[in-house]
Amino acid sequence: MEILPYEAGVNTVKGQLNIRGASGYTMGAGERSLLLLDGVPLLGSAAGNITWSVIPTSEIAQVEIVKSGGSALYGSSALGGVLNIITRNAPTTPETRIRVKMGGYSQPKYIQWQWRDKPGLFYTTELTHARPFGPHSFWVRAQRRYSDGYTKLNWMELNNITGKAKLNFGKHFSTSLYVNYYADRNGLESQWKSPADPFEAPIGEEDNYGKGSKLHINGFFNYISSPNVVIKIKGALYDVHWQNYGTNQDFSNEKKYFGEVQFATNWSKSLNTTAGIVLQRTSIDARIFGDHHSLSTAAYLLTQQRMFQEVTVSAGGRWETYQVDDKTLDQSLAPQVALNWKHNDWLAVRGSIGWGFRVPTVAELFTRSKLNVFIVESNPDLKAETSISLETGCTVMLPGKEWLPNLKLDVGLFQNEFKNLIEPSLKPDVPDTIQFQNIKDARITGAEVGLKSALLKNKLLLGIAYTWLDPLEVNTSGTVIDTLSYRFRHTLVSTITGYWLRFSVTLEHRYSSRMDKVELFDENPLTEQDKRVPIRLWNASVSYSWHHWEFLLRCENLFQYYYTELERNLGTERNFSLTCSKVF
Hints:
Layout: E1 10-13, E2 16-19, E3 34-37, E4 40-41, E5 60-66, H1 71-74, E6 82-87, E7 95-105, E8 121-133, E9 136-147, E10 156-169, E11 173-187, E12 209-226, E13 229-245, E14 251-266, E15 271-286, E16 290-307, E17 311-324, E18 327-344, E19 347-358, H2 362-366, E20 369-371, E21 374-377, E22 385-398, E23 406-426, E24 433-455, E25 460-474, E26 480-483, E27 490-500, E28 503-512, E29 535-546, E30 549-556, E31 564-566, E32 569-570, E33 575-583
Parallel strand pairs: 3-6, 21-24
Antiparallel strand pairs: 1-2, 3-4, 5-6, 7-8, 7-33, 8-9, 9-10, 10-11, 11-12, 12-13, 13-14, 14-15, 15-16, 16-17, 17-18, 18-19, 19-22, 20-21, 22-23, 23-24, 24-25, 25-26, 25-27, 27-28, 28-29, 29-30, 30-33, 31-32
């Protein structure tokens, strides 16, 4: 998701979602920020990771971000926040859209780094058709993506077909069904060959690749029992198969089943309640994890009360129990209380306290594998993580007049206290061996300041946001032991967009400070090997619309800046792309 790193408090480390630094980097095995698609969890079953490629980005209607812990309503993996992606419904008239994206990567700017004769190319083709039929509607999309990649093993090719149907039966019943099938082949990157050859693969790993498929089905059924009572039934199936080839021969076959029944009741104009029960079952047959199954059951309740027309109080909680191989691994209670005070149209104040939890994934518990020079060992004794999240903040909106700007200022302060935080760490006195371990305690304190403005009668839009984090490992008395790995202490993002006739021009900038600590390869101050640097990225794009045509010319990493988010893995090389789309 290209836009996420330009949202305040949100970034990714090698594709792993971080909301306010909750996840850091856990080798893709255990997200602390939950991804929802149309309100249904979209995390993989074994590793609990996010596969961004399965998300139909061209069919997104809205993205909602909850930055504080959401375990009270959403359960495990939501203790660091929630990202809910809402797909669009079909339009009221038939529509066909063709979209083609073509681009290429620049050659490395240092001659000694150039490793191929021609720059790498990539393309995406999409065909979408949508139409209503009576009171119902549907859309279906077919997509093909291919990329040579910017490094030897960054190549990928995938085929994806996605569809969504929305059915309305009178005033009381409606249902929705979403289906996504995805098949891909991709190179398997671990680290670069050497500092002198950062775009090439280590000797012996040049032909490593993986292939797999993912089937995701989710849907819901709504029943409006009365003007004040709604019952919603949700269900999902996530079926995953993958196989690695080359030096790593791991494979996995995974299935996850999800079901939820939710009741929403309006007791009065100012009081409403949401309650539900959830069941989720997972089964895994894998060389890397072994054969395992898990079961989680949960019940939750959330009540909102509006008082004095200005104050809204929310209170609720969730009880969840989690079993692995028919043995109870953990039981957790996660209460939450939030208060919002909207004084008038220009000032709103918020505050919340919530308890969160995350059970270890099958990957964290049972992975046995080899990652380049490292051996990954299992740790079936892992305990569940728990957290307490505190947040306070305010939003100030100042409307402009004529040529004066509209201003929106948002300020937030937060602190997350973690116990038994799970992180991948090198085992003491065991060379080159990684194991997921419970860090006894951790604390992340931070602040966010965001400013958005519209000038020149909304012809010029400005946005800037700064996030500060203080991520610490502490002991039971609160004494600081060390800094948490893979967190950016300072992040500054800014966006400027201007509109003129049928054109729009956007300039984006992202700065992330040098990581204080990593786990795998610490820098050598004498030789500067594995040196860590801040991230300074600029992106630019120009778009033009004409009738039903849309054209977008974009450049990412405009100044070809070299950096790493994960040691010995270069960030994306500068690339140019042209996207053309036509709606019939």
